[in-house]
């Protein structure tokens, strides 16, 4: 194993010319009403949604980044609420753009729809699972039966060969269920688990977040979880790369009680880990390898940072991504506070969305990271 490469000593990849992922919020419409929804989605489309022709134009702009183009994640709301969604995917495919979808697990996501998604050329879909049982998950999703439907969708997708990723948002309500969630999805054949860390936007402002120490415990648990053959990714917790580097070089440094419980439960459920961690040593950050296009064409560094940097109706996404000052500042780590002077900010950089939610400044320090305390010990 190449330790230097594993821990990211060579530094981050260069995302100055183009992102890896373009998230397109195709609509705000959704049949669910999840407690932590970033978009505060509603049942009908909002005025100003990009038309089909404007969607084609956006895809043309994405193609302008050059080959290979960024992967487009069609999200929402629920992209299946758009009647033209498969015309859009067909156009993307014609341009050679790879795409994935993030549909809501509603009555629209039937077996037939999953087959259509598979046959459309989607590289994968992602579905949310926020609890290890129906009591937790359905209370968060606020629609009875969503847990059972989600399990059915996962099984169906695995059986038909449609790539599927499970997303879980960490909050006080489900924190202690994380080992059971991993055990559940691993048993279902899921091989990619993306764990979202709460940002206080949309309906998420009403949800209880976790503490610094709990963030560190979860990230150490996720490092352990990534050694069981599941690809583990995080959203708005880039400091997991600092955790992975520290664990790889120095072993198990974190002894906080919650982590000990996680570790014991994971070992009980899955036995001792036998594989290398799947945590990527280098990765993206909002504005650095990622860009978000809202339903009305407004461009943001990421889906959780409500700081507009342009609009694809009046500008070109390639130029916005490459030339916007905020995007350049993020990519160069022109950040204030501890995140700005941290010796690991090239592989991490802190959550720009959490910094904005806490201070109104997307270039401020991320207050969820415990590393400043650790360096003073």
What does this structure look like?
There is one protein chain. The strands form two sheets. Strands 1, 2, 3, 8, 9, 10 and 11 form a seven-stranded mixed β-sheet that branches. Strands 4-5-6-7 form a four-stranded parallel β-sheet, covered by helices on one side. The radius of gyration is 20 Å and the shape is globular. The chain has helices spanning 3-7, 52-63, 85-94, 111-120, 134-141, 146-160, 178-187, 212-225, 240-250, 257-270, 317-323, 325-331, 337-341, 352-359, 371-375; strands at 21-25, 71-75, 99-101, 125-128, 164-170, 192-197, 231-235, 285-286, 289-293, 298-300, 310-311. Helix content is 37%, strand content 12%. The protein starts with a helix and ends with a helix. The chain has one domain (3-270): TIM Barrel (Alpha-Beta Barrel). The protein is of the alpha/beta class and 377 residues long. Mean pLDDT is 91; it is low at 1-11. It is built from 15 helices and eleven strands.
| Structure class | alpha/beta
CATH fold-level label: TIM Barrel
Kindly state the number of beta strands: 11
Question: What is the CATH homologous superfamily assignment?
Answer: Aldolase class I
| Quaternary status | single chain
Largest sheet, strands/sense/barrel: 7 strands, mixed
Assigned CATH architecture: Alpha-Beta Barrel
Backbone shape: globular
Helix content: 25-40%
Beta-sheet strand percentage? 5-15%
Q: Would you identify the regions where 5 or more consecutive residues have pLDDT less than 50?
A: 1-11
**Element pattern in H and E:** HEHEHEHEHHEHEHEHHEEEEHHHHH
State the name of the first-level CATH class: Alpha Beta
Tally of individual domains: 1
């Amino acid at each position: 194993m190449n330790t230097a490469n594993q821990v990211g000593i060579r530094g981050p990849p260069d995302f100055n010319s183009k992102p890896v992922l373009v998230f397109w919020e195709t609509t705000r419409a959704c049949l669910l009403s999840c407690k932590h929804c970033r978009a505060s989605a509603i049942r009908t489309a909002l005025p100003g949604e990009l038309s089909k022709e404007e969607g084609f134009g956006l895809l043309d702009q994405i193609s302008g980044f050059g080959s290979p183009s960024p992967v487009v994640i069609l999200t929402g709301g629920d992209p299946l609420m758009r009647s033209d969604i498969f015309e859009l995917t067909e156009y993307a495919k014609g341009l050679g753009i790879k795409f994935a979808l993030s549909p809501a697990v509603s009555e629209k996501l039937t077996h037939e729809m999953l087959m259509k998604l598979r046959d459309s050329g989607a590289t994968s879909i992602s579905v949310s699972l926020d609890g290890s049982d129906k009591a937790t998950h359905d209370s968060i999703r606020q629609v009875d039966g969503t847990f059972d439907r989600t399990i059915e969708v996962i099984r169906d997708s695995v059986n038909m060969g449609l790539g599927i990723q499970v997303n879980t948002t960490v909050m006080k309500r489900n924190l202690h269920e994380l080992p059971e969630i991993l055990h559940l999805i691993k048993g279902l054949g899921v091989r990619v688990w993306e764990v979202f860390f709460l940002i206080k936007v949309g309906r998420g402002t009403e949800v209880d977040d976790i503490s610094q120490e709990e963030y560190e415990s979860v990230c150490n648990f996720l490092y352990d979880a990534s050694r069981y053959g599941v690809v583990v990714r995080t959203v708005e917790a880039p400091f997991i790369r600092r955790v992975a580097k520290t664990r790889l070089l120095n072993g198990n440094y974190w002894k906080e009680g919650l982590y000990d419980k996680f570790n014991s439960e994971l070992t009980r459920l899955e036995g001792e880990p036998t594989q290398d961690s799947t945590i990527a040593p280098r990765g993206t950050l909002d504005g650095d390898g990622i860009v978000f296009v809202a339903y009305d064409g407004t461009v943001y560094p990421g889906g959780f940072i409500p700081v507009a940097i342009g609009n694809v109706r009046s500008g070109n996404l390639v130029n916005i991504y490459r030339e916007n000052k905020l995007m350049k500042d993020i990519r160069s780590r022109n950040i204030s506070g501890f995140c700005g002077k941290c010796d690991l900010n090239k592989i991490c950089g802190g959550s720009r969305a959490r910094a904005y939610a806490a201070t109104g400044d997307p270039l401020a320090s991320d207050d969820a990271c415990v590393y400043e305390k650790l360096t003073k010990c």
